[in-house]
Amino acid sequence: MLWKRAVHEYIYFLQKMKRYYEEGDEEKKPPEQAPVEDQEPAEEVTKAIEMTPPPSNLSHRNKPKNQLISGAKDPFPGSASVTKELLSKYERPGKVKLVRNMCAQRFKSLEEKVQTAVGLTARHEVLLPEEDGYLEADEGQDTWTITQQDIAEAVDITSGSKHFNLVLPQFGPYSINYAGNGRSLLLGGRRGHVAAIDWQSKNLNCEMNVMETVNDVRWLHTQSMYAVAQLRWLHIYDSNGVELHCIKKFNDVLRMEFLRYHFLLATCSSTGFLQYLDVSVGKEVVATNVKAGRLGVMCQNPYNAVIHLGHSNGTVSLWSPSMKEPLVKMLCHRGAVRSLSVDKTGMYMASSGLDKKLTIFDIRTFRPLHSARLPLGAGTLCHSQKGLLAAGTGDVVQVYKDTRIAAPKTPYLCLSAKAPIHGLQFCPFEDVLGIGHGGGFTSMIVPGAGEANFDAMECNPYESRKQQREWEVKALLEKIPAELITLDPTKLGEVDTATLEQKQREQKERLGLDPNEKERFNPRRRLKGKSSSANLLKRKKKVGHERQRVSMSVQERKAKQQEIKEGQASPGPKSTLDRFKK
Amino acid sequence: MDEKDLFATEYPVSASEDEGDSDTERKHRKLLDAISSLDGKKRRKLTERTEASLQVSEFGISAEGAGDKLSLSDLIQPSNKSSALSTVKKQLKNISQAKSVELPLTREQSNRIQRVVAYEKTTEEVSRWENIVKQNRKADQLVFPQNDEKVKPARLEEVVTRWKPHTPLEMEIFNVLHKNKQPVTDPLLTPVETASLKAMSLEEAKLRRAELQKARALQSYYESKMRREKKIKSKKFHKVLKKSKQKEAVKVFEELRKTNPEAALEELQKIKKTRIEERMSLKHQNSGKWAKSKAIMAKYDDDARQAIQEQLQKNKDLTRKIEVVSESEESEEEGGVVPDFVNDAQVNQDGLNPWMSGKLTSDAKVCVNQDVGDEAEADVSAEVEDAADEDSEDELSEEENLLQEFEDKRRLRKMEDEELSAIHKSDGEHDVDEPREEQVTAFNLLFQRLLNQSKQESHKEKRNVSEGRHKVISEEPVEIEEDEKEDEPFLMETLDRKQDLEDLDALGQEALSLSVSSGKKEPARESSQVVADTQAKKPKLIDHNDVLPVKAVKVKTPLIPTAVEEEEEEDNDADQKMIIKEAFAGDDVIRDFLKEKEQTEKAGKPKDIDLVLPGWGEWGGTNLRPSKRKRKRFTIKASPALPRKDQHLPNVIINEKRDAKAAAHQVSELPFPYNNPKHFESTIRAPVGNTWNTERSVQKLTAPKVITKQGHVIEPIAEEVLQKRGPCKKPAIKLDKPEPKSQRLPKKRPHGKHPVKRKHRAGRKHKKKSG
């Protein structure tokens, strides 16, 4: 929050400075130039903010700038230039060429504003304080030969302390989950051990045994609540380990994903149901029968909040709560899918199957990019914020770099956990990979894994209690409805071009009846023999004819209009004898 | 006017008549003339007499009454005065002037005309405002009231220049400042300052400052550190210190080794001596009293355990043989430069699934046969094939046999490598071309010579053993290796025991080159594989390569999961069956998927509408189908289906159904000024919120269209604005001039309407302009 504000202030300051000099200029210019300046100050500003190309920059510099009374010069005239690459990073896609028409002016001014905004955003890059980097080995050395101990010794004490082991051999393999800002860690042992830890200070916030199998654990939107998928039902506990809810609608849950912008907890169960729980109101949003047997593999696409499910027949299906059928179904492996992970950009999906292959898919085109064979195959996969891919193969964790470019040949780092690996997750905003395994938990240092520059407005690892509260309120206000989850989020910005007919059909489907349908005429029963069947039929026919007539008249009117349009207006009133005309 | 008078004028007046009378008469006539001239056409030229003369002239000079028409009444002029004729005259005149008065227009008609005129007037008037209205519509923002002068803060320079010293104190100060050439007008910099600025650039200054700062800081750190360390009494600390010093010493030694080998050798001797001493003593062997007591405690106490471990580590460190990194080192003697598991992994991997490996080699064979052109290469490959065949057979028959085979191969390969290296060395020990050798220092060379001598002997022996089998050693060892790898990705590659890091690196490069070459050969190989596949599974119609097209690259894994070893160990028949089942299970998966895809495609297609009524116009009944012709006639053909999104993706089914719930949130009707959805979409494409934008741009993007100041009266627009802004023509009809007002603009006015009747959105006072 602070840095962002600082950025704003800085930018504002820059702008102010610029204005100051510019105004001085204008005042001192000879009068014949003044009107020109008057006309296009706005344009000039925008131009300056749009990546001023070198020539225009030069022209800026050539202007006589020392026109102040004081004779002071602006040491850096004009606005600083922004490189094209930087600008293109923030470019808003979908720009349309300007067309001369009614809305051209509005169009133009808006486009200018957008470009200005892009320029300003690009300028912010300068103020991102942190740089990211990776381990680089000496010549003839490989990065994977560097052990955790080496790294921990080489880095500073605080970072070094991020490599640690929790020896918890009793309660079986651990599934883990880091909170959204990476501060708290949740451990769920298969044999019922649940613990919430502030892993950096190693403070134990709560610990308990739920005396039931724990399938998965997941933090909800704050660090004060978490969901535990237990043997039968889904339970929600608070940070002190007090059970808040037992949700019996969600039974036999195997895996969970929390969609933080939608406040949805997506669960998949051994009964084959994909369910969504709105945690802000505590209601089930939708329950879908996937019809693909036991659902034990699940991950979310952080870009569009689509849920990916892996099935035993080697297919991966993509789901959104608004559709009862999968959005996409793709065959990824010959054997069953064991694990899935989608990277932060939502472009690449890594999947591993029983065929021991690790395949990277481009999920914009749904094409496999490359594939690698791992010994024993990867049981768990996880992408880091910077795109590293961790794979848990048996009891060894291997971290791969640049998997989107080429198939991995050698790992970037690897570590043997000495027990079968069960849960993997990169800690957000930290160069740390959490490994939950049969013997407890291991925190592994993976240089270059985490995002170095965090957006404090979005997710603040250092937030205070008060900030946390405020964030919660804001996030709730900005909650995105579940229906907006689509494969392509940009679709929402498009005009719905469906025909009226289609819309009516949809309405009919949605409501279960057609609101536009006219009810059939049911002749009233009359007394005194007026309701004989013949009479009824006659009355029905009458109404039928009436309707026909109305529709006919509409048609006739249309035909007439057509005629008039074509210029064959009728010369006068028709007479009955016209028909004999030739 | 009286009738009599009229006649009197016509009558020629005698000269004796008085002046005044004639004057009035003239005027009267003139009037009459004027009136008659109004009649049009026969306009008569008036001639004015300027000189006095008689009325009647025989030459007709006088123009008075010259071209007059003869009227009926003129004929009875002589009997002028007789009153009896006057009535006749009147009647005659009436006859000549008799015309019917037109009926007045109906009220509707007159109203219409009035309206038309009024409309024209007002349009003319209102159209003058058109420009302003347009401008206001285009404006991004309108602020009301509009002509408020903004109070600008005066700039510093102005303020300063305006100021003059008054009091004596001020004067004094001013004088002092002047003496120092302190700029009065320029409050920013003195000449001295500017000069200094010029002298040193900002970066330089910054650098300098940073340097100084750093130096100061370092000095202070060092001082404080020394002070602190002086006071420390902890043994542990000193221990650590010693350790670090040792490390440093090692570093220095390394440095020395590179720069001054002679001195380094001496150093080495010293180290060796310490090692010998260490080996002699029992100091760190954990056999002392202290160590034993700690060993008991170690079970319960972490610290004790650590202490013991430290001791042991120390011992290890001290007793470790100091080695020089050389290319050719005996694998038996290798001191753990590469951890053992590196090699373990390779061994395990190949033994992972013998059935699979056999399969893959046969696949690879085909490729190689396609690829290889050279005879020599073919030779090699053939040989390798044989070997592979043998291998697979062995695997199927006996595990131990297989292992034996592997062992042989491994030895062979190693030997070959070593030989190669030996050749290199014998060729040129000081070969500059070899990049690796470049890096080897003189010191290294010294040792290498010694080592090589001993090794070469052993190599020769080994070569003698295996020469019978392995005959070809070509001039391009790398290429052969490549081929071998392609042939037997499982066998050869994994059995190649890597001796040190350099070797591993070389391997990596090989792999890279391999990938490059394989990339080149891709198409040919693919086709060959397709052929092979189709041959293998002829009855299948589905080409599996299409469905799961990406070939898996094998990952080199330094660490191998323990489960793999177990897998290798248990080699039951049941397990084999499972593996086979697993492998073949995939085929059904693909077929099922393709079937499903076909079904969904079919379901998505629009269907023909069948309107055939059986028995209509024909015989009907059981087993009687309507005729083909009829069926054809009464089925409405559906339009062809739109191309599916997944038509080129065999392994994907994309749902084409409309997401109605999401569509409810979309814009369903194009808003007013836009006529192309693309244009509208592009205007809403950019996010406006502060999550994606800077605060400044958020403010700009979300600025309100109209701003009204609270508590200010917003007056209707005044006419002065017209003169000020926008070129427009003068009004044809001058309106009542409104009293001078401040020029204000209403927010919006549609054209062609009365501006005077518009009400302002935010206005409180409505003023009507009289039109």
From TrEMBL, chain A:
- A Gene Ontology CC term for this entry? small-subunit processome
Q: Name one GO biological process term.
A: maturation of SSU-rRNA from tricistronic rRNA transcript (SSU-rRNA, 5.8S rRNA, LSU-rRNA)
What keywords is this UniProt entry annotated with? Nucleus, Repeat, WD repeat
Subcellular localization is given as: Nucleus, Nucleolus
Q: Which Pfam families match?
A: BING4CT
Region of interest (Disordered), ranges:
22-75, 503-582
Q: Does the keyword Nucleus apply?
A: yes
**Basic and acidic residues composition bias: residue spans:** 22-31, 503-522, 545-566
**The name this protein goes by in its record:** WD repeat domain 46
**Domain BING4 C-terminal, which positions?**
411-489
Main localization, broad class:
nucleus
Q: Which InterPro entries match?
A: BING4_C_dom, WD40/YVTN_repeat-like_dom_sf, WD40_repeat_dom_sf, WD40_rpt, WDR46/Utp7
Q: Which organism is it from?
A: Leptobrachium leishanense
The WD repeats extend over: 330-371
TrEMBL record, chain B:
Q: Where is this region: Disordered?
A: 1-28, 370-413, 454-538, 725-771
| Keywords for this protein | Coiled coil, Nucleus, Phosphoprotein
* Record's GO cellular component terms: small-subunit processome
Q: Where is the composition biased (Acidic residues)?
A: 372-402, 476-490
Would you say which domain of life the source belongs to?
Eukaryota
Which residue intervals are annotated with compositional bias (Basic residues) in the record?
744-771
Task: Report the sequence similarity comment from the record.
Answer: Belongs to the UTP14 family.
Matching InterPro entries: SSU_processome_Utp14
Q: Which GO terms describe its biological process?
A: rRNA processing
Mind telling me what this protein is named?
Answer: U3 small nucleolar RNA-associated protein 14 homolog A
Native source species:
Leptobrachium leishanense (Leishan spiny toad)
In terms of Pfam families, this protein maps to: Utp14 (PF04615)
In what ranges is there compositional bias, type Basic and acidic residues?
A: 456-474, 733-742
Quote the subcellular location field of this record.
Answer: Nucleus, Nucleolus
**Where this protein primarily resides, as one coarse class?**
nucleus
Coiled-coil ranges per the record?
301-328
